[in-house]
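Next comes the chain:
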Amino acid sequence: MCNLSCQRREAENGEQKRELETLGCRKPTDAQTDARSFLSEEMIAEFKAAFDMFDTDGGGDISTKELGTVMRMLGQNPTREELDAIIEEVDEDGSGTIDFEEFLVMMVQQLKEDQAGKTEEELSECFRVFDKNADGYIDREEFAEIIRSTGESVTEDEIDELLKDGDKNSDGMLDFDEFLKMMENVQ
C-alpha cells in the first residue's frame, strides 16, 4: 500500500499529504517505533490477528467501540474511563477509529501498566485461585476454565496449544514457575 512513497515526496500541498496519510502512508511516530521494538514478532502477530478480527471491512482500522472487546480478548481489562483515556491518547487524528500502529502503541502502554502493577505475590494469589483442587498445579481442566471465563469463543485445540506453550516440562500442567513465566509473556 505504501508504494506511494515517491508520490509523498512530490506532494506539495497539505491536501495531498493528508490524502496520502489517509491511505496509510504516514511515517511511524516515535511511539509506534518504540512499541514495535518492545514486542516480539509473535506478540505483534497475535495482536494483528485480534485486530483483524474486528476490522470487518478490511480498511485497516477499528472503531473505538470495538476496542474494549479486542483488549479483553487479549487479556487486558480496561475500565470505561481507562478505555476513554487510552482512545483519546492514541487516536491522533480524532477520527474515532484506531489503526494497527496506534493499536500497538496502546497495547504496549497497557502491558507496561499491568506489568508494573502485578507483583509475584499477586500472581501467587491468582495461581491459588486458579488451582481449584489445591494440588500446586493448574491442570488442563482448570486451565480450560480460566480461558473460557474470559467469555471468548475458544476451541479445545486452542486451549491445548496455549497450555502446551506454557507447559515447559510437558507434564500437561502448569506449576507456579511455569505460570509466572506465562504471565510474563502475556505482559
